Amino acid sequence: MILTGLFDLTTRLVRMPEDGGATVWMPPQSSTIAGEVDWLFNFILGISVVFFVLIVVVMMVFVVKYRRREGRETASPSASNSVFLEMAWMAISIVVVVIIFFFGFKSYLNISTPPANAYEIQVAGQKWDWSFTYPNGYVDQDLHVPADRPVELVMTSVDVIHSFYVPAFRVKKDVVPGRYTNVWFEATKPGEYNIFCAEYCGTGHSDSSAMVIVHPSGEFGPWLEKASNFLLTMTPEEGGRKVYEIRGCQQCHSVDGSPRTGPTFFKVFGKEETLADGSIITVDEDYIRESVLEPNAKVVAGFEPVMPTYQGRMKDDQIEALIAYIKSLDGKTGEE
Amino acid sequence: MAEGHSAVVTPMSEGASGENYLTTGKGPLSWLFTLDHKRISVMYMVAIVSSFLFGGMFALLVRTEMLTPGATIMTADTFNKMFTLHGVVMVFLFIIPGIPAALGNFVLPLMLGAKDVALPRLNLLGFWCWLTGATVCMVSIVVGAVDTGWTFYTPYSTTTGTAVAGMTLGALILGFSSILTGLNFIVTIHTMRPEGMSWFKMPIFLWSLYSTAIVQVLATPILGVTVLLLIAERTLGVGIFDPALGGDPVLYQHFFWFYAHPAVFIMILPAMGIISELVSVFSGKHIFGYRFIAWSSVAVAVFSFLGWGHHMFTSGQSPLVNVIFSALVFGVGIPSALMVFNWLATMYKGAISLAAPMLYVLAFLFLFSIGGLSGLFLGALSTNIHLHDTYFAVAHFHYLMFGGTVIAFLGGLHYWWPKMFGRMYSEFWARISAALIFVGFNLTFFTLFVMGSHGMPRRYYNYLEVFKPYQQASTVGSYLLGMGFMIMAYYLAQSLLKGEKAPENPWGGATLEWATASPPISRNFEHEMVGLDPYDINALELSSDSGGYVRKDPSSILLNQAGGE
Questions:
Q1: ipTM score
Q2: Which one, of B380, B564, B417, B378, lies nearest residue B503 by Cα?
Q3: Which of B162, B287, B376, B467 to mutate against chain A (most A CBs within 10 Å)?
Q4: CATH of A236-328, one of 3.40.50.20, 1.10.760.10, 3.30.420.40, 3.40.50.2020
Q5: What was the pLDDT predicted at B25?
Q6: What is the pTM of this model?
Q7: Which of residues 109-168 of A touch B (CB under 8 A)?
Q8: What gap in Å lies between CA B16 and CA B9, rounded to an integer?
Q9: Which of A151, A166, A181, B47 is an S-S bond match for B316, by CB 3.0 to 4.6 Å?
């Protein structure tokens, strides 16, 4: 049949593999549901190409054949309606959309139903990064998952709406303040993939990206164990620096003296700061601790009270390490 | 056929002392306080074209910023304001009033053989609402602009420091303009059809304006309520949408799309009507499937109210709701596909003229097909999850809104231009401009489909290096598009200044607006008119001495004259 032939041709056209499974249209397939989604995408693409070519070719043929010219100033007589043709065309369109709806529905059921044995990770979105909390309480800025095991994310937002999107997995779900949303996937290929925020969230929207790191089966457990205990194996300064990197501090606080959304950490310890209300405080251990747990209680003049609280989200040993790290940023210690 | 000669002499345009609606009354006040639908339409036209230039400028700035990842010419905050202003200006100031208020206002009473719309004072009030709303929007831009995207999603919009309250207040006032236009059209079509013009003898453009008007009147109040709640939350701290105040942010999305989904059809329905008129006239042939097109317009309007939830498949609403909306949203595809079929069938065995308006019809069929078919990917649930909020959706939307509505608007503008201003334009430059716009548009937006399906999210200031070639191609396309419009501005200005005088009926249309002078006299017609078959193209013939078309039996459309039906 012409239709299947054309479809076959289109499918071949769009499935030219380049850089590891990516096609002209789609990024690499790295989750169990990606194949289904891509199949439907190509199916609709095939149908679209057939109808588009049909419409444009018919239009072009009519323009050439029936062009108004010398000796053909007026139209030839022809019918101006045909209930049969209208009904036939309508029936064709209905059948096409019903089929497309059905396949979209079928694969959506798989996408939206997490398996019962899924490994659960808590996700918090905030301006402008992500934090992923593992069952043992360890928090990371990137998402580490095992390959070949279903993973379910339970997500909420600290501030505005974000959206968790991994193109390689073909999954996307909004991350909404004040409620939990879920998304699940089963990664098939070890490697690193981009996480994008797909719901507009302000200045750093396009930079609130992170990576999914898919570990080969058997390597995820040992990784998590090692990562969770990083404070035990590092000096407080090194541990604090890691806290700074993975807990979202660096999105707003620099360590080189330049102001970002928040004040820099460089040489901040022991410094006297003027607050928004005009009072003056000294940055000491207590002030740093308070600024982590109740960030908007004492805001330095010139900055907006926009920092989310870490009350209940950051443990004491991490706060202590962070204080040690900030103390070390005195322009003398270490390489900073 | 663009080569017209001097004014046409037919029984209808005689007697007038050369006066027309443009020359009757002088000075700005005679315009600002006019009750003449034609003058109001011309004022809307100036307003809308200015908005389009303004919104287009923002678009070019956005595209220029996209030349490289990270900073190119502006900061992230400026970029966020630029794409927001592009959206707000194009949607609320340009495309919603575009066809109905500017072209529809001019053509609708003429097509009915009427002297004016039923409620001329309301019409003028609508224009003043537009002016007031536009002024409020402009002031908001000056005092701080907005950075929320044109959708104003909460809680971002209730917490950002920009002028959201002012801008949404502007949108609210503009909404009144839209409602008043719609109301006026409904009343006019119900009460002012001439003798002989039953519902099924109305030009299709009137069916589409009527369907649009129903949506305008029923859907726009929802926008008003929504932005009022938003303003109340921002200024008074009433908790409706912000979870920090006990509200629900997803509720806002339901409210917003309950208006904005039908609003998409306020934008596209009149465009479909224009295409129906043009395809018949420039094929020199009766429109095919009149009743099916007429009912399709109504069906599109009805379906438009049932699709809002399909913008929210990833929002966290229940999967069951998603499935229902996916099924409903496909519904609108059926009448749309039916119209495409009827337009093609109209061309069959026609005598197809490739004058500028018809070039826009061909461009419309090409682009609207891509826009409509790409909707299938977004209607289907599992592909939508991947493509939602990516460039793919942006490309789909622009293929329908620009490739559909703007292209049809341009087609209509070139078609009715001689009637509105009594002058012809340069066919040569019109073709060059149409070609540039067509090529530039496809380059700008087809690249977005490819980036989108690869996962490029929308509203991104920074992007992955792999997208750079596509981004740059798209930007080059947008410059071509801009050039196309500059050429158009040039030849249309030239037409106004020294264009050839247009004949009464340069294209051979059988609808009543072509049965009066170009430009029409203030009271539109010298006689009372009769409604005949609006697509009986054979009732006209090319007149050798006028350069335009004339009725073989001129008295057939005059009431109480021999030969009238």
A1: 0.91
A2: B417
A3: B376
A4: 1.10.760.10
A5: 85
A6: 0.87
A7: 109-112, 159-161, 163, 165, 167-168
A8: 11
A9: A181
